[in-house]
């Protein structure tokens, strides 16, 4: 295994101005002929040698400027082809054979349900042909795809179709992409697919053909993606001045896919889970996911494709920025307050643990072994928070000027995170020097705040500290914008200065800073409003202050955060045996009742406020971690709240029922709250819970209702659960995405005994080790969201064995799932020892991808 380091970056010796590809698909073998127009890179040190990547290619011939090269004139080993003695300009033609049918790793060209498709980011293109597989080599592509006419009537690649023809049983289509792009954005599809077509007229009046492709049976599940795409296109014109640039925009839905989706130029390829949506088969959360992923990939056309990354250390340049863009889009399309809380919840409960564990790395990492392992929450979600802070520091108007500058200056180039921040700095005239540490420094900063009421007024003192992370012991102070207000006894913000401002952004850029406010009454600080910086905020709130924030704060994030603090404190006391569940529930009751009383203002927000933090999140607060004790405390509080407020849960379960299907935000919020109420009702052991769940399950209006009912039945072991599971499987056996839910509902049922269920699920005829969605629905659910089943001797053993089995087929997926074991070092000694042994056993045969992750976890 070789480590790649940012500090070793060198520009490529040669550029590839254009690529002509010929992909000839036959059963058993696909032959790829490529013609590369090479030119010495003026920006590189003079060299006549050039390296091309190539993995698993069977080389048939190589010719330079028309002359066939014999074996002595090149070197091809360890995935690298090196040619020396190249002239200033040259044409390299290679012919290779590849084997897409046996490609279970799903990178490069592979087959999914009889359809040929590609995944090239990050380094898949080298599995298709020889090429300098790095994002700073941008070329114009001309691609011809050839295949059997009957079985593959549809032949797609990037750009516009420019020629086509037939040869007996076979046919071919040539595509040309006028925009130079790195090879990671190359895509190709050959298959027999149905198409939903529409037209979008851009702001300058150009017509763009929109074509969404899926298997014929899924044609009725494309409308939502189409609507989302059109909204995203309009939004990007309006918000960023970004207009679409080709005549065609295509999305293809694929069942076997390693991630969510891929932004290939003009030809996005999507995991079916992120593009197909129908109320009968897709949950409300699924609908929202489709909307945001469709938008995300579309937004990449500018933030990623027109302006791309110089090297993979800059990945967050495109991903952090694009996540920020999709978050703002979804906020505009739906409830902004709810969206912000959902995003923060995700960041805090998933990215923070990553940043505090063995996998911690900077948003711009310094080194990696397998770049696939760095498509992380830190690069994506923390990266988005860093862009968001810049947005707020500059303000919407200046930020837009800065992004205009960024897109104009770097169009058609491969650039760095620093180039992005330079634009912010230039436009705003502020020195962003210290701010840039957010990109290089790993770890979650902790911001401790204390207040003091003095005769001269109110004082807040902030201290920042970032704990050490692997390979980075010393941390420097960051620039932390803290949006804040001070609330009076009625929950109203008081004036903070002579001008009467009631909200302010404090910039914390030293280790310790104190701020004074001319306020003499007793106040509750509302801090980090809107979650203005990705930090852990410590403040010793009194219970009554938290209850006041939860009821009165006008900031959605602060309300939610107050609720989380109340729940965590209660469960912490239960874990430590310092209190009783009924006492805790009784103490929470008035605050929760206030939320329920106001639920009609925003059902989704109420649901977020009423939902307990997960068992995993609770576990992350306790070290050494005893998952059984944490499980017990979590269950106890949930049950006690279920009992204490049972009249409310009952009436919410019954009264929020809709009579006809609606898919708007309000209807989705109602369903979310209703499902939560039903869950609490069941947790409290209410005798009506099973009846209500079964009734809903029998006659659901949509999948959110059906699955919500099924989950309640299964997770609480209510009578009717077994029958419902059987009925569900019978009803949906032909819908893969719905069956994924069937698997994951069972694998995530809390409790030790679920591990036996998981063992059976892995043997189920419908379980398929080659389909990432299915693997995730069982192993991801077990290891990621079912700590009480996972953290058992049998859980560890089963997980490790399964990991090895997945790894043999698909290293990227195995490595991704292995991340769930990153809490190893926090476990109590007994379990830690068991898990360590199991992981060590897998390590012996692990792929390079899996090895990198396991080694970090075990170190
Ligand atoms: N850029 C792709 C991710 C590719 C992951 C490769 N291992 C999807 C996205 O972020 O939009
Ligand atoms: Zn992306």
UniProtKB/TrEMBL annotation:
Residue ranges occupied by any Aminopeptidase N-like N-terminal domain in the UniProt entry:
103-185
Which keywords label this protein?
Answer: Aminopeptidase, Hydrolase, Metal-binding, Metalloprotease, Protease, Zinc
- The Peptidase M1 membrane alanine aminopeptidase domain sits at 225-438
Give the Enzyme Commission number.
Answer: 3.4.11.2
Domain Peptidase M1 alanyl aminopeptidase Ig-like fold span(s) in chain numbering: 443-539
Cofactor(s) annotated in UniProt: Zn(2+)
Write one Pfam family the protein is assigned to. Answer: Peptidase_M1
Any one biological process term the GO annotation gives: proteolysis
Taxonomically, the superkingdom here is Bacteria
Which GO molecular function annotation, any one, does this entry have? zinc ion binding
What chemistry does it catalyse, as a reaction equation? Release of an N-terminal amino acid, Xaa-|-Yaa- from a peptide, amide or arylamide. Xaa is preferably Ala, but may be most amino acids including Pro (slow action). When a terminal hydrophobic residue is followed by a prolyl residue, the two may be released as an intact Xaa-Pro dipeptide
Instruction: Show where the Peptidase M1 alanyl aminopeptidase C-terminal domain sits.
Output: 544-858
Q: What does this protein do?
A: Aminopeptidase N is involved in the degradation of intracellular peptides generated by protein breakdown during normal growth as well as in response to nutrient starvation.
Q: Which family does it belong to?
A: Belongs to the peptidase M1 family.
- State what protein this is by name: Aminopeptidase N
- Source organism (scientific name): Alcanivorax nanhaiticus
């Amino acid at each position: 295994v070789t480590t790649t380091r940012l500090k070793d970056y060198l520009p490529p010796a040669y550029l590839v101005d254009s690529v002509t590809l010929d992909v000839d698909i036959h059963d058993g073998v696909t032959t790829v002929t490529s013609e590369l127009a090479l030119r010495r890179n003026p920006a590189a040190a003079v060299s006549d040698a050039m390296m091309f990547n190539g993995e698993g290619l069977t080389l048939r011939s190589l010719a330079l400027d028309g002359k066939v090269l014999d074996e002595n004139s090149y070197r091809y080993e360890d995935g690298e082809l090196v040619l020396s003695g190249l002239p200033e300009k040259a044409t390299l033609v290679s012919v290779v054979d590849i084997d897409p049918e046996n490609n279970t790793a799903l990178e490069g060209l592979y087959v999914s349900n009889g359809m040929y498709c590609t995944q090239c980011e990050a380094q898949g293109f080298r599995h298709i042909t020889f090429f300098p597989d790095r994002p700073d080599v941008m070329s114009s592509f001309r691609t011809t795809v050839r295949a059997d006419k009957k079985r593959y009537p549809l032949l797609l690649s990037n750009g516009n179709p420019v020629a086509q023809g037939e040869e007996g049983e076979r046919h071919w289509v040539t595509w040309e992409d006028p925009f130079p792009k790195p090879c990671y954005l190359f895509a190709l599809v050959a298959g027999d697919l149905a198409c939903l077509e529409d037209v979008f007229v851009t702001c300058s009046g150009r017509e763009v053909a929109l074509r969404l492709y899926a298997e014929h049976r899924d044609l009725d599940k494309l409308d939502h993606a189409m609507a989302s795409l059109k909204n995203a296109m309009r939004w990007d014109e309006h918000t960023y001045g970004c207009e679409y640039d080709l005549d065609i925009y295509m999305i293809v839905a694929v069942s076997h896919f390693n991630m969510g989706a891929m932004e290939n130029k003009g030809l996005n390829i999507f995991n079916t889970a992120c593009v197909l949506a129908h109320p009968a088969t897709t949950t409300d959360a699924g609908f929202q996911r489709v909307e945001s992923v469709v938008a995300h990939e579309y937004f990449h056309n500018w933030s990623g494709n027109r302006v791309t990354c110089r090297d993979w250390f800059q990945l967050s340049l495109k991903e952090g920025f694009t996540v920020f863009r999709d978050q703002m889009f979804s906020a505009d399309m739906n409830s902004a307050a709810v969206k912000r809380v959902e995003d923060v919840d995700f960041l805090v409960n998933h990215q923070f643990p990553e940043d505090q564990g063995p996998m911690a790395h900077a948003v711009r990492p310094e080194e990696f072994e397998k770049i696939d392992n760095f498509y992380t929450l830190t690069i994506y979600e923390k990266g988005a928070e860093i862009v968001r802070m810049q947005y707020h520091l500059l303000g919407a108007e200046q930020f837009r000027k800065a992004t205009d500058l960024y897109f104009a200056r770097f169009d058609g180039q491969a650039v760095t995170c620093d180039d992005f921040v330079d634009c912010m700095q230039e436009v705003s005239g502020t020195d962003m020097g210290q701010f840039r540490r957010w990109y290089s420094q790993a770890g979650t900063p902790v911001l401790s705040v204390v207040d003091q009421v003095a005769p001269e007024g109110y004082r807040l003192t902030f201290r920042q500290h970032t704990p050490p992370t692997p390979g980075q012991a010393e941390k420097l102070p960051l620039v932390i914008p803290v949006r804040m207000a001070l609330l009076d006894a009625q929950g109203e913000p008081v004036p903070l200065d002579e001008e009467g401002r009631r909200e302010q952004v404090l910039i914390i850029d030293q280790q310790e800073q104190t701020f004074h406010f001319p306020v003499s009454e007793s106040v509750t600080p509302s801090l980090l409003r809107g979650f203005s910086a990705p930090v852990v905020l410590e403040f010793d709130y009194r219970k009554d202050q938290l209850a006041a924030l939860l009821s009165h704060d006008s900031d959605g994030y602060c309300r939610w955060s107050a609720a989380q603090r109340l729940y965590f404190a209660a469960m912490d006391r239960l874990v430590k045996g310092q209190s009783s569940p009924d006492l805790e529930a009784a103490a929470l009751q008035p605050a929760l009742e206030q939320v329920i009383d106001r639920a009609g203002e925003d059902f989704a927000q109420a649901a977020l406020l009423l939902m307990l933090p997960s068992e995993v999140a609770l576990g992350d607060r306790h070290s050494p971690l005893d998952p059984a004790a944490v499980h017990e405390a979590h269950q106890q509080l949930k049950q006690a709240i279920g009992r204490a407020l049972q009249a409310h849960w009952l009436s919410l379960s019954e009264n929020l029922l809709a009579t006809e299907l609606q898919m708007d935000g309000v209807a989705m919020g109602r369903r979310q709250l209703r499902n939560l109420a039903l869950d609490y009702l069941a947790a409290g052991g209410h005798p009506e819970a099973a009846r209500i769940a079964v009734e809903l399950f029998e006659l659901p209006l949509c999948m959110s209702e059906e699955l919500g009912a099924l989950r309640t039945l299964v997770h609480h072991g209510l009578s009717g659960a077994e029958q419902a599971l059987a009925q569900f499987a019978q009803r949906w056996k032909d819908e893969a995405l719905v069956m994924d839910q069937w698997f994951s509902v069972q694998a995530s049922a809390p409790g030790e005994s679920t591990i036996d269920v998981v063992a059976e699920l892995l043997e189920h005829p419908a379980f398929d080790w080659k389909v990432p969605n299915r693997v995730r629905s069982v192993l991801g659910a077990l290891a990621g969201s079912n700590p009480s089943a996972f953290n058992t001797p049998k859980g560890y053993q089963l997980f490790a064995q399964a990991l090895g089995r997945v790894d043999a087929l698909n290293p990227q997926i195995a490595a991704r799932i292995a991340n769930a074991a990153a809490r190893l070092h926090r476990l109590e000694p007994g379990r830690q020892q068991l898990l360590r042994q199991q992981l060590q056993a897998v390590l012996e045969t692990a792929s390079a991808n899996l090895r990198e992750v396991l080694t970090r976890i075990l170190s």
